[in-house]
Amino acid sequence: MRLVVVGVGRVKDRALRAATDEYLGRVRRYVACDEIELADGPPAKLEPAIAKAVAGASLVAMEVEGRALESDAFARRLERLGSTGKGVVAFLIGGADGIPKDVSRAAADRWSLSTLTFPHRLARLVLVEQLYRAMTILRGEPYAH
Predict the structure, then answer these.
(1) What is the pLDDT of residues 5-15, one digit of tens each?
(2) In terms of Cα–Cα distance, which of 41, 26, 35, 25 is closest to 3?
(3) Which pLDDT belongs to residue 62?
(4) Which of 58, 104, 118 is nearest to 83 (CA)?
(5) Fewer CB in 10 Å around end: N or C, the chain?
């Protein structure tokens, strides 16, 4: 399995960047995991950049209206997605205007981190922490408990 975290916008805040990098490092102990930051812009400009970033992957659009999952279910769904196709799972977090509708409709699935609305930088940190938690759940390690 290989994971790709695609975020629209950059994480500039030092504390958030450090925390995000810490959890990306933890995820990478288990699986390959890349982070791609895309410049925000109108859908016509953003959609081709997203398509290039997630090419060949099972795409999960992270949206407030997406499927709410408990951590165990998140881990199991991730495992299933990672065992299909090329084994690449890409997670997309939109920018200020969210994820373009055509991209959302084309995604393999739509998940929600919360019914709350988070700034995309904070959502990225929460996502990578949940990816780490999922890896520990799948390996039966104590972090998740």
Answers:
(1) 999 999 999 99
(2) 35
(3) 97
(4) 58
(5) C
